[in-house]
Each structure stands twice: as structure tokens, then as C-alpha cells.
Amino acid sequence: MSIITQLWCIAFIASVVICKPANGLSEQYRRELYYLDFYLGIRPANEQGDLEVEERSIDKYIESAAQLNCDFRSNCLWANAPSDGLLDTSEFYLLTKGDRKAFPIQVGPGNAHPPTGTHFAFAGNLTKEPQSAVLISAPIASQSSTGILSFEYWLYNSARLEVLLLKVNPVRGHLTVIERPITDCHFLKTNGLCRVEIRKQSEPFRLAIHVFKLLDPAVGSFGMLTKVRYEAELSTFHVKWAMKIHGPPIFGGMPTARWLRQRRPISSASNLNCGREDGQNENFEECLWADFAKTPGTNTAHWAIGEHTQHWEQIMRTTPSSRPKGQFYFQYVDPVAEFPLPQLRSVLIPCTQTPSSLSFKFWLSLGLQAQICTLGSDNVALSCVYLNDADAPGPLTIDVDTADHQPFRFAFNVLRIDRGANGGAAVVALDDIRYSGWLCHESAPTAPPPRLPPLSSLLQLRLPPSAAFVDTAQAFSDSLECSFERGDQCPHWMHSVSDLESGESEEEAEELPDSQRFWLGSVPRRPPFPVDPSFRGAQVAVALLNRNAPEEQFAILTSRPIPCAEKGRLTIAYFASPGAQLSICANEQCVSPKRKREADSMSVALNSAHSFRIRIVAERNNSMPISQNDLHEPFILIKSIAARSGFCSLSSAAELACQALNCAFGSEGLCKFKTLFLAAGDVPFVVTPSGEGIVARFSRGMRRAILKSRHFRLPSNEQLEMHLEASLSTFGSRLYICPDEQQKTVARLSMEKTGPNGVETDPLREFGYCELLMGPKVEERRMERMVVQLDPELRHFSLVAVHDKSEQFGDAEVHLNRVEIRDTGDRPIC
């Protein structure tokens, strides 16, 4: 039998390991196993060929790097990744060498004569569409030094492999890549040892070995590996009392206070205060709050004291302006933490003679649910209040009754997290804790000092969510309707740069400061200020106007862009206090009510042949007298916004994304994309002389071209695909797609040919999150059509062309012809 026939059999047999027989095919299955044994001398190591995994520990943090060492002879801390249909579509299986038969020369670069009894993790396929398999390790809390992952490997035909760093748990069912270390492990390597350097990591991750391009219905392809070794120093930080805390050293975490040996009861409610509003000269270690776990030493998610807020946005997924100052309490719930989690508890409060109040600021990660409870001296919950992320950061005030003059304490605890929202990890943070009230032994005043609560407190004001932090169905509503009184938050009326839409500049969508925004609030049923009866007890949008400020006072509600209007009518139900008035503006024209009544319904007709926004403006009117008896600031309350006929349909999130990204390059120029120059050696994308597409041309000293998309939002309930037509002219050139945060990575790339020590640098060294679309292997110059599935979390991306091999392979051209957005049924969106 010829070598070609032999290798065809090998490729055919590769599908055996990933396609187990169904009923009626057992004879065919046995014949394929026979060929696998006959030509390679390898066979399933057990009846089903399943990997042998240490199931009890595969989802627990390793304590030393050596735990990941694996020859596959016994149970290991490596397993098949859960299939997500994208990164992982196939499986690894366990094979063993059954004789001394040598591997053919086409199978390499590993040892052609592996010893009998060698065990392999094997992935292969014989399909037209490329398949891939991912082998993942047990989770690693963090890595404090540069690590090395090495293993012996064999590849056949088109199969390739790479090493990945993944989030511990899938995000929305998809494996999420944290980093792609440089993996120089290919078929032509002089030895069969793959050795990959892993940079220092401060957050939990899993190591992954990704074998891909498993295809070719003619001859098939496969990859296999053995002798996995991992060398690194792993991080832990410890609480030095009866337990240890293990976890990533985020926020400079320190142990909470040692109050377990409290000498005597607190003497005043203020003893529980912790933190200062300005964050200066704080010492949380002296506060009377501490971590409490029912089973010390068995959990990883202990409360700690934060000292800084580095990487706050990446960890918390919150806006940069909202974060603690100075020290603060936090609990990092890592991806493998077991419930129930430790609590943050106060010391015991002897008793109170009057109702008391606890106020605090708090921050919650996406998908985390927490509560604060009062506990009796027997640790049984007396009452609990959920922490609503819509109220964050507060301060939130909790009123506490006297608890029948019995001792009690406060306890913060996390109830659940959405493991699929952010890879399984989440954080809750607390700051500026204040407790007020009269303890039983104190001499309380016979009557509280007279004070008038501020209007913001009476109306329980809170900032509405920005469009960037709500579902696209709410952020891009197809209607202008809004009912605040029904509890709607109406993010489509909340002005935000995240609502940037097609045809607008970022200046037009610039965010307003908090003082110029409407807030959400609730009117008391018996307010200590005059208000129309229909507004009592109602939920409303509120504009507060400082009557003593020298500058103009106003607040604005801004609609989404409206394509056009013909006899459209907008009606607003509102209440205006003395000194405040309401206007509706569009196309630089404003209308105010002619009748100066406090409670009214304002209605305007709107016509426009062009796209426009509606702005509802609350402003201070100095011409309206304010009585000295009016102790509160002027304000506007809005219950609802009604829109009746005449308004053109508003674009959906999918349509807006399509308008931002669809482009026939050349005939339409660069459309809404723009080419960037970030470093020496960057070249532009320019329209070709024929006007068909755009091209980046590389010669000596020119190494990179960047095409950046504009900002967009994708629907969360609909999968969209980007169809890209592109071509490469020269071997060694590559085309990548770099999403979201990697814009910063692109900006940091060093494009110098040599580093500080004269050693050649790799221009892809920091492209940890980018996906390779084409190259570096170029057999012929032809336009190829690629399909990229767009993650709903994506906000923008860059197409990055790289050619740093001009000295070896000559000049290069990278052509981009077209970008088109389609749904999964291959139907165009716009």
C-alpha cells in the first residue's frame, strides 16, 4: 500500500475518535479502530476513549503549578472545554501507543518512535468545514511570575495549535479569551516540544490548548499531545488569624478588623461609622466590621479592605466617575466560590431606644445580587433589604426599628451571581458607612432637633441608568413613549454618548453632567411641600434647579434621533414649582406653555423632513417670584411622555449597527470607518485607482495598517454576522480583527524593528485579544469572503493588517473590498 493510501486511511480514522458509533454502525467502527491501530499503532486507552479527568478538582483552584503536569496515564486536571459552537466544536480523546510502530514522516514534529504505553490527547476530523477542539486546565487564581507551559505534540495536514488564556467560566455560553500568548509550535519545528511563555496574571484564568483547522474531506487532519508541564509561581494573599484567604490580589486587599475579642459593647451608634466622604486618613482596620464565615477556611470569597481602585472599570463594569475614595470594603466572588459566602458583619449592638438608620455607598458587579440584614444575637435574620444596582452608588439609607430593645447586628452578604454574565467572577464594594440612633443607655433628647430634609432625600432621587448599561431593547426602543409613573426608567430619553447613532458626531451626543440631568424619584404621599394631588405617591422624573447658583440652571431629557416627522404630537404630563418652567425644543426652536400653571399637560406638534432630536428642558425662571416661605429649590416633575402618530419609525439596534458598518469600500470611500496612524511604520488604507475596494501597501519599514470602526450597539436577542471580503498578496502578511478594549492595545504596539537590547521585537506581542482572520500562509492572491460572528457585547473594533516580513518575502498589499452585516439566515440587515 502506498504512503498516500496510508495517510488517507490515517485521516479517515481520525474521525473515529471524535465520532462514536451509533446503533448499527459497530462493525464500521471496529474496522476504523483496526486501521488506526494498524497504521499508527495507537488505540483508545479505554472503552470509550474518554479523557481521564480528576472530576473533584477540575473546577477548584490549583495550589501549585505542578498539579497541571500530565502524561495522561492517570486522572489529570485537564478536560475538554464545554462546546460553544465557535472556539470549541470538537473533542479530545485519550489514545495510547500499543506497539513500536513508527509514525509516518507526515506526522510530526514530535518523536516518530514514542515508547509503547505513551498516552496522548488526540483531536482530529475529516470534514469540509474546519473544526476545533479546546483542552482546558483547572482554574488558576493568579500567577505572580512569568510561567512556562510545555508539551510534546504531533500535527498532520492542516491542523494547527495555539495556547490560550480563558476566563474560568464561559460568558453567555461562549469561551472567552483573555490572552493569546505567542505560540511558535508548528509542523516544521525542529523538535516536537511546544514551549509557551505565560505573562503574569492578576485575575483567575484557565490555560487552554486549542487545536484547530481540523478539516479536509480528502485526507483529513489531526493533532495530538502528551507530557504537559506547567512551571510558574502562583499568588495567594492571606488573612493571618484563624483562616486563610486565597484569591487574586485586586484592589490591594487586606484583612478586615480583628474584633473577635471585643472588650465591651459599643457606647454610641457612631462607633459603627467607617470611612470618610473625602477618603482621607482612613483606617478601616480599626472599624468594627469584619469578615465572618460559618465554616472558616473552606471558602475563597472573603471580605477584605481595598486600598486602591486600579482596573476598577474592567473588574466592576461601571462608569469611571463612580468609585470609592480611599479605603473601602469589598468581596471578590471568584468563579469557583461556594455558597453560602462569608458575610461582612458589625459588632453586636446592645439595643436601641428609638428607630435608627444605617447609610452606606455600594457598588455591584453585573449579575450580582446582595442584601443587608439585621441579625439577632442568635444570628437569625430579623429583616433584610435587597441592594438594587439602580440605587448604586447611593448613599442608601436603611431605617431600623428598635428590635424590641434586643441586641442585634448588621450583616452584608451576597445571595447569588450570574456565572454567565462575566465569566463567573463578581465584586461587591462598600464605603462611607454611617450609623445613627440612640442606644438604650444613652440620654436621648425629648424631641429631635428641627430640621427639614433636603428635597433630594424627600424624593429619594437616583440617577437613571445610562443606555450603555441597559439591554438594547430598552436603549433603542422603537417608540418615544415613556411612563415614569409606571416605574419605567426610559433610558431612550436619557442623554448619553452611548446613544450615539448614525449620522451624529460625538460632540452632538456629549454626556451632560449630573447637575444638568433629570433624576428618577418618588413623591411622598404626604409631601411637606405643595404639589398637585395627582402627583402624590407617584414615580416621576425630577429636575432640581439651584435658586442660589449664579449661572443658569437647567436639566435636559433628550430623545433618540427621529428620522422625520409629519404632524407628530408629543404630550408631557408635568408639575412645575414656583421659579421653574418647562420647554420642548427641536431643530433649534423651543416652545413653552403660555399658561403659567403649576400642573399641566403640555402638547406640541412637530414636523421635520430631516433627522432630529427632541429636548425637554427644565430651567429656572428668574422672572417668576419665589416666596421666602418656599424652603425648597425650584423643581420640575414629569409623570409621562406620550407620542401620537406622525413620527417616522425609529431604527433598531441591528439597523443602526448595520448603518455604521456596512460598506462597499472604494465606491463609498471608507464609509464610517477611519484609518489610524499610531506609530512609525503605520500605513493608511486608501481607495484603489479602480475605485474597487481599499488597499494598504507595505514595503520595507512599513509594517501595519489600522481601520477602525465607529461606535455601535448590537441587539442582545439577535445574532449578527459580519461578512468581510479581503485578500492578501504576499506570504507572511496577516489580517486581524481586534475588538473593544484592544483599541488601547493597538495604541501601545511598538513598531520598532528592534528592542532596547537590539533583539527583534514581534509586532504582535501585545495583540493578546485579536483574532487572526487571514494569513500568514498565502498560496495565491484571491479575494476571500469571511464570516465573523459578532458578540452582542461588542462596541467597536479595528481591522489590523500586519506585514513585518518584507525583507524575507517582499512587498505586500492587503485589499478590503466589502463589509456587510447579515443575520444567521444570511439575510442582509440593511
Give me the CATH fold name of the largest domain: Jelly Rolls
Report how far the terminal alpha carbons are from each other: 56 Å
Mean pLDDT: 80
DSSP strand (E) fraction?
25-35%
Low-confidence stretches: 1-25, 237-247, 496-510, 742-760
Shape, principal axes of CA atoms: flat
The helix content, as a percent range, equals: under 10%
CATH top level assignment of the largest domain: Mainly Beta
| Strand segment tally | 43
Q: Domain count, please report it.
A: 4
Protein name: MAM domain-containing protein
Organism: Heterodera schachtii
Keywords: Signal
Signal peptide: 1-19
Task: Kindly describe this structure.
It contains 8 helices and 43 strands. With 830 residues, the chain is mainly β. The strands form 8 sheets. Strands 1, 3, 4, 5, 7, 10 and 12 form a 7-stranded antiparallel β-sheet that branches. Strands 23, 24, 25, 27, 30 and 32 form a 6-stranded antiparallel β-sheet that branches. Strands 33, 35, 36, 38, 41 and 43 form a 6-stranded antiparallel β-sheet that branches. A hairpin with a 6-residue loop joins strand 35 and strand 36 (694-698). Keywords: Signal. This is MAM domain-containing protein.
